[in-house]
Specification:
The longest helix has 21 residues, at 2-22. The strands form two sheets. The chain has a five-stranded mixed beta sheet, sandwiched between helices. It is α/β, with parallel strands linked by helices. The protein has helices at 2-22, 26-29, 41-49, 52-63, 74-86, 90-101, 107-123, 130-133, 183-200, 234-251; strands at 37-40, 138-139, 146-149, 152-155, 160-163, 167-174, 207-217, 222-224. Helix 3 (41-49) runs antiparallel to helix 9 and helix 3 (41-49) packs across helix 10.
């Protein structure tokens, strides 16, 4: 009698487990492992066009990241991120005035303050596309900060994700006096922004517009959106990713 009770309970447990599994998606049942290779979007863009020695330095920095980093241009980036959603440059002027009044201690912090002012002054000279400027933007918050591509986890942190009446777009800023982005690098960044939005943002009735996915290079006073047609740099990106994987494996 006791054996029958135990067997019945076992069958009931199995049935419950089966029912639970049937209610799950394939993604839930077969969770993908986190990719072995991981890099920030900006560093991937730098890697693709870099010399071999620089590529190795970039990957070493990703494999063994520094324990402490100094974050440059935080004041200027914050002002630009306030300005873009409201289509108004007043936050830029407020940021300049605030930085001019800021007291710093140490050579590095003072240099960062001065360069941040210069960055905002440069930004004021950029004329963004009319289609982008006329969008009434509402900022979207999103917790997913990566995008898996060809076996590589690319850490993507758009500075702004927004929606307007009909569209969704995003902005990634490059604020670096010594390492401005050329057109190809900006196009690669905007291409990944677009792919990232398609993967993680779902807004019914709204279209992710490639022309509203912008990479803005502040010191270069330039920008680029996702290229179209045959100018999409997909082959360059694919070859760069394969090269990254091969070199990564040789370093560890």
């Amino acid at each position: 009698m006791e054996t029958k009770v135990i067997k019945k309970k076992y069958l009931e447990d199995i049935t419950r487990q089966s029912d639970a599994l049937l209610g799950k998606s394939t993604d839930d049942l077969f969770k993908k492992k986190e990719p072995k290779y991981s890099i920030t979007l900006n560093q991937l863009v730098n890697f693709i066009e870099a010399s071999e020695s620089t590529q190795r330095r970039i990957l070493n920095g990703q494999i063994n990241p520094p324990k402490e980093s100094f974050f440059w241009y935080q004041g200027s980036k914050a002002a630009i991120k306030k300005s873009i959603p409201i289509n108004d440059v007043e936050p830029i002027y407020q940021g300049i005035n605030k930085l001019k009044k800021t007291k710093t201690d140490g050579i590095q912090k003072e240099r960062n303050r001065i360069l941040s002012i210069t960055a905002l002054e440069k930004y004021l000279q950029i004329s963004l596309p009319l289609q982008f400027r006329k969008q009434k933007k509402e900022v979207i918050n999103n917790d997913i900060k990566y995008f898996d591509y060809l076996g590589i986890r690319i850490k993507i942190t758009p500075d702004i994700i927004f929606k307007s009446q009909d569209y969704i777009g995003a902005v990634k800023l490059n604020i670096n006096k010594t390492k401005p982005f050329n057109k190809l690098r900006m196009e690669i960044v905007s291409y990944f922004l677009y792919q990232y939005l398609k993967k993680v943002i779902k807004e019914e009735g709204k279209t992710i517009d490639p022309k509203l996915c912008l990479c803005i290079d502040v010191f270069g006073k330039n920008f680029a959106h996702v290229p179209t047609g045959t100018s999409v740099p997909s082959i360059i990106i694919q070859n760069g990713c394969k090269e990254l994987i091969n070199m990564w494996d040789s370093l560890i």
